[in-house]
Amino acid sequence: MIGVFGAGTVYRLAERARAAAAAVWAWVRPVVDVALAAVDTVAVVYVMRGAFKRHHLLAEARRHLAHTLHGWPHQPGLDEQIVLVVYATYDVVST
User: Origin, by domain of life (predicted)?
Assistant: First the structure.
């Protein structure tokens, strides 16, 4: 592509794409699906630790929220809701 259009054109196109992406992220607020967050949380804790304690699930739920929301604030207790869904949906036994 650089050979056809030149480095300057490709660079300007990439800059415009980055600016457009930043504008979209500023305008669109991400949404958290609690059920999918619970799946991700339990999967990561299982793979990384193998043992489940409530504080491990809570910490991973908070990491998931930080990653998903890109710095946007979330409703208080959303991390707790994710952990409750994990316990209600999956056969998780705290050790």
Answer: Bacteria
Please report, as a single letter, which amino acid is at residue 74: H
45 and 23 assigned to the same domain: no
Q: Are residues 73 and 84 in the same domain?
A: yes
58 contact partners, CB below 8 Å, separation of at least 6: 79, 80, 83
Mind listing the pLDDT tens digit for each residue in 50-82? 878 999 999 999 999 999 887 778 889 999 999
DSSP bridge partners of 95: none
- Domain encompassing residue 90: 31-95
Greatest extent of the chain over all pairs of C-alpha atoms, in Å:
61
Tell me what the mean pLDDT of segment 13-22 comes to.
88
Dist CA 69 CA 83 (whole Å): 17
Question: Amino acid identity of 28?
Answer: V
**86 close to 38: Cβ distance less than 8 angstroms:** yes
